[in-house]
Amino acid sequence: MHYERHGQGPTVVLIHGLFGDRDNLAGLGRALDAEGYDVIRVDLRNHGQSPHQDSMTFAELAEDLEQLRQQLDIPRFAIVGHSLGGKVAMTYSQAYPQRVSALVVADIAPVAYERRHDTILATLASIEPGTLPSRKAAQQQLADAGIDAGTALFLTKNLKPRAEGGYRWQLNLDAINANYPNIIAGLPEQPPFTGPVRFIKGEHSEYLQAAHQAEVVRRFPKAEARVIAGTGHWLHAEKPQLFNRQVIQFLNAHLTGSDDSHDPAAVL
């Protein structure tokens, strides 16, 4: 598992979502570094610079994180995960509760979802990266398929230039497509994680709903929730200062003993 590490203090692992990489939560990483944390930003398998693997279950993704923990000899850490990264973080927390000091889940629930990325997957598969003159050409193909400009820009960050010209996909698109049923599935059945958990929802996002509350509480009985107004699923990018403050306030309360949870400005 590829990672980048910076800062000193209690360790926090940041996990990106589907089609992303370790840079997606770089802004939060810088804020945590400034706050006095040891920050590890990871690439999930088949993303970023991590190895490509044919299989991609939640159990395997969580085991990748456990192998990294052993490699770095870290007794415990907090985890912040967005979307797919949140599902991986939840799976790991239930599988290795003694290794997790606190958990923040950004805009995802521990439930199965309907397919919602078929257009993206099909369009990405149709792009021939080796013959692309520019990323903008790929963005146009995505736009022609009805994919919004922001999502197209995000997706084409996975195109990396080749020395001989054209581009290559950093993502393992074949494996992601083949494992998509695993990615949208509910979490493995495991004992509840009884440590501190904060779920942060984007107000306009459909990923985390009131209907999911029972399953959230069943798996995470100490869970609390916050909503960031005026945001969707990409809440960490749409209102980064508010998102970062929510994460830092929660981690400070549970990792450093500095609790500003009674500050009205810190609770949305």
Automatic annotation (TrEMBL):
Keywords: Hydrolase
UniProt keyword Thylakoid present: no
Record carries keyword Hydrolase: yes
Single GO molecular function: hydrolase activity
Name of protein: Alpha/beta hydrolase fold protein
Boundaries of every AB hydrolase-1 domain copy: 10-240
SUPFAM superfamilies the record matches: alpha/beta-Hydrolases
Alphabetical list of InterPro entries matching this protein: AB_hydrolase_1, AB_hydrolase_fold, Epox_hydrolase-like
Domain of life the protein comes from: Bacteria
PANTHER family associated with the record: PROTEIN ABHD11
